[in-house]
Amino acid sequence: MPRKETITRDMLIEAAFSLLQEEGIEQVTARKLAAKVGCSTQPIFRLYKSMEELQVELTDRMIAYFETYYEEFTERDATPFVNLGLAYIHFAESEKNIFKALFLSQDRGGKSLYELLNGSKGAVIREIQKAKEDGKSNPSELFMKMWIFIHGAACMTITGDYDLLEGETLSLLRDSYAAYCRK
Please, what are the averages of pLDDT over each run of 10 residues along the chain (183 residues)? Predict the structure, then answer.
């Protein structure tokens, strides 16, 4: 009778995700993952051809995690791009290691930064549509201007250089939107 498999792909991905959250993407190695799961490296390489294959699934897991985070983020303002920006900045602050692996890496599972942010539910497209409904003539260009500010603020949280309170951030996002609309 064959031995029952006790280590599954799901277990490995969840353990890798946990390791990523705690220590960063660089620490997701076969040895550290095996130690986290409590096994040798053999089950990892029985289930995955390589660590690169596992990394592909881990990237998919990170993307899904961000999409869920954004979709569940409580809306704070009706101004286009403000909630998207606030959620992104909060994500950088609360999930630094995932943010770095997903948004500050060149290896994003073959997706552009725009594709990651837009997600499977069209987050950016919805915001661009809101700006269009708000009477803005070039909402895609407006998004680009807002995005540079939003991404910069999020990156500053990673380095500890952004310490504004949520109300101050909301005000800055609203003011940026208004300023970019005047041009």
Answer: 75 98 96 96 96 95 94 94 96 97 86 88 93 92 95 95 94 95 75
What class is the 60-182 domain?
Answer: mainly alpha
Phi and psi angles of residue 134, each rounded to the nearest 5 degrees, phi first: -80, 0
Count other C-beta atoms under 10 Å from residue 3's C-beta: 5
Return the closest-CA partner of residue 126 out of 171, 81, 89: 81
The set of residues, in sequence order, having a beta carbon less than 8 Å from that of 140 and lying 6+ positions away, is 128
Written as one string, the DSSP assignment of the chain is: -PPPP---HHHHHHHHHHHHHHH-GGG--HHHHHHHHTS-SHHHHHH-SSHHHHHHHHHHHHHHHHHHHHHHSPP---STTHHHHHHHHHHHHH-HHHHHHHHS-S-STT--HHHHHHTTTTHHHHHHHHHHHTT-S-HHHHHHHHHHHHHHHHHHHHHT-----HHHHHHHHHHHHHHHHH-
The pTM of this model reads 0.91
Regarding the domain delimited by 1-48, which CATH topology (the fold level of the hierarchy) does it fall under? Arc Repressor Mutant, subunit A (1.10.10)
